[in-house]
Each structure stands twice: as C-alpha cells, then as structure tokens.
Amino acid sequence: MLPLVLFILLAATLLFWKWQGNHWRRLGLVAPFGWPLVGNMLDFALGRRSYGEIYQEIYTRNPGLKYVGFYRLFNEPAILVRDQELLRQILVGRNFADCADNAVYVDNQRDVLASHNPFIANGDRWRVLRADLVPLFTPSRVRQTLPHVARACQLLRDQVPLGRFEAKDLATRYTLQVVASAIFGLDAHCLGSHKRMAPPSRWLEWLAPLFQPSVWSLLETMSLLHSPRLGRLIGHRYVPLPLQHWFRDLVEARSGGDNLLQWLAESKRGLGTEELAGHATTLLLEGYETSAMLLAFALYELALNEDAQRRLHIELDEVAQRHAGNLIDPVALGELRYSEAALLEALRLHPAMQALQKRCTKSFTLPDQKPAASSALKVQLGTVLVLPVQAIHLDPAVYPAPNQFRPERFLIQPPVGCRFLGFGAGPRMCPGMRLGLLQTKAALATLLQDHCVLLADEDQCRVEVSPLTFLTASRKGIWLRFKRRTRRY
Ligand code: HEM
User: Fold this and answer.
1) Quick one: average pLDDT of 450-465?
2) How far is the CA of 117 from the centre of ligand 1 (A)?
C-alpha cells in the first residue's frame, strides 16, 4: 500500500511541476519551461551568473518578440519586455499607472527607515515621498551643492594614489566624503588632507561593506527581488539595525548650514524627526554607491581606451584654459560634454541596476508577442515585468558595436527614450541623476587633469561583474594606476 501512495504522490508532484512550468505555454506564449524552485534562474540561485546576464540571455534568444514569458526564482511566472514601444508605455506612457510599483520586498515594520525610500515605497506613499525629495535636485539646488563637491575634490587631488589602487575603494571614499558633506554638512574623514592618509572613518567602516559581494549579499538580493519569506527567514534588513540608529544620530548631528537635509527641514516644516531620518537614509544610500561604481567603471574604460582618454584630456585642457585652470566651476563643468558622454557610456556598459522590475497593480493588456499577430495577453495582477536594462544597452540593434566604449554616441545623440535606462525613465526616473553626474564628472576632471589612468597590470583580464549583488559590483575589484601627464593639448 505504502509504495502505491508514494507513487501517486510522486506522480502528482511531477504533474503539478509540469503544469506550473508550462504556465505561459498554456496561454499561448513563446516561453521556456519553468523548473521547480529555480524557474529559469538556476545560475543566479547558485551564484554563477548575475541576474542581468540571465535576463540578457532570455532577451537575446528571442529576437523578434515584443516580450517573453519566463520564470523567476521560485518558478514565478514573469514577463521580460523587449520592445522599445512597450517599454515606453510601461515606464512613461499609458501603462505606467498599471505597473508603477517596483517589484522589491522590504518589511516596512522592521526596515522603518528604508520604507521611506521612494524606490521601495508604493502607491500614494511613493508619490508623497518622491515629491518631498524632487525639489532638492532642481538644477539650481544641485549647483548649490558644488562647494561640497569642490571640497571633496580638493582632498581627492591631494591624495591621488601612487602605485596600484582599487578604483571602487577610492571612488567610494570620495562619494562618501561628498554625500556626508552635501546631505548633513559633516566631514566623513574618508579622504585625508595634504597627502596624509585619512584617519579611520566610521562612514567607511560601516557603509563601504554594505554593497560588497558575498554569499550573504546573494541571499539579500534574492530576498529583496524574489521572496519576502526568505527575507523573514534570514532576518534581512535593507538598512541594518545599527545603521538605522546611527542615521538617526546623524540627523541630530547635522550642521545647520547649507546642506540637503537642512533645505528639506526648512522647506517641509511639517516633517517629523523620523521622516527626516528616512529621507536622510534614502539620500545617503542612493547617493554614494551608484556614483562610486560609475566613477570606478569610467576610469576603467578610459584606462582600456587610449583614444577616448586622449579626447577627454584634450577637452579638460581646453576647458581649463578658458577657466584659469579651475574645472570645478559650474560653467566649466557644463562645458565638459565629452566627459559627461564618457560617464553615460560607462553607465551604458555597466548599468548600476541590470534590470528594472515592475509589478502589475492593475490588470492591463499587452499586444501579441509577435509584431504581425493580433492576439493579446491580459497581464494579471501581481505579475512582475522585467525591463532588462543591461540586455537593451548591449543589443547591437540598439547600439552598434555595443561592447565598445564610444562616448561619441552620446555626443551625437543624447540618451532619449528607453534606449538608455541607466537612470530609469519616466515618473520614477532617478531624481538624483544631476547630483550623481555632477559628483562623478567633478572627480573625473580632478583625477585626470594632471594624470593618465592605466590598467594596473598590462595583461589584466576584463573586469568581471559579481553575480552576488543587486547593484552592479565587480567580482575582484577594479585595479588601476595613475601616471603623471607629460603632454598637454
Ligand atoms: C550615477 C549615479 C546614479 C545612478 C546610476 C542611479 C540610478 C538609479 C536608477 C536606475 C533608479 C531606478 C529608476 C526606476 O525605477 O525607473 C534610481 C532611483 C532612485 N535614485 Fe538614483 N542613481 C544615481 C544617483 C542617485 C543620487 C545621487 C541620488 C540622491 C542622492 C539618487 C536617488 C534616487 C532615488 C530617491 C530613486 C528612487 C526614485 C523613485 O522610485 O521614485 N540616485 N536611481
């Protein structure tokens, strides 16, 4: 009797798995089979490939389709959008309201400060939180943060490393120095002065490891993107508890001068201490890591591409001549168009978020998968729509010779539409883009005005992306060296 029961149970389980893994095919969609537990993301679950690479593979394997059905971790049916017009409708156009929520799981009770982040918040709460922050990033407000950036650049100039250095480490020191000053009016002591190394900095000690790749970061990424249950099981907090306490202390310790938090407190007098701490957390966490990664990757691509670096040096020299050698000036920075294009191109090749993931909150209809066909798909409530940023950025039909670093692309054609999603697009687009570009451009100009950047080792392999993190990180660091420039243009 027992063997028969076991046989029936096994057969029922197999049939259920078969039924579950064919969800999209039953609806008439072209889709791979979804495997139990891992869906189509086995390599991601095992820490072998980043989620961006997996999505890129699905994108590349299905040319000609407007979207593809596939299965995320835990065999959850999801839709990967390929078509530019559909992307536009979802991010900017008539379907924005149907899937405006980011598909991320954060427990609002345990992660009180993180729940103030517009990236995490949904619905009306998102609208309110975003509306609080957007006025901090108008062009004139961002220009007012320049003194903070300039002070950090001065420290950076005094501390250009001699010999091999890890670019992400240097970039994180710099961006933490900027954001501590711009947000709180505090000195993070991440960069020393006058060629002395910085004293130990709690900012570095506590914040630099937060986005580092590890087995733990893989579990955190899985919890954040795929499973609240896993998050509860491992006790995941987007902002660890000691940091939550420290951020509240920082809000109390902030200077009363010209800084983002002070402007916020003055312009929104109704904000309570907890809301201010929540906004401070958002500004801080969003403010340093993505910019540091961008700066590190831009230095790396310039080290690899001599022609691009020469062109950047020519621009720095020309603009410096017009501004008495001072590049950290609002007008001079505005004239550094090639430098900005180099940053955008580095972000195209190495997007901070390899995909945007939205959740359907109001059922809507997608046109047929194939351009000429006429049947439609009703997207069910709760379905995740993946917008594969990395795959789009590396699609030869969108960017010819997509693996080559060619800043000229963004000189000829500024990043418009959904071809470039380094900062997202539409009503949820990154509000801190101007500040992110300002601080990275200023650092690039400071570091390269008097130096060339080279790979640390001639036979160095290409930098590999870590499969273990939500925000793009390199697997083994980005090792470079500086050499003093001998030639001026
Ligand atoms: C180079 C640096 C940066 C990059 C590459 C970047 C990238 C992004 C991306 C891809 C998104 C998601 C957009 C979407 O969901 O459609 C985002 C959202 C966001 N970013 Fe940035 N970011 C950068 C710098 C900053 C800075 C400096 C701040 C503020 C200090 C900031 C604040 C935010 C916020 C608050 C959101 C959530 C917006 C919302 O959901 O409404 N970012 N960023």
Assistant:
1) 89
2) 10
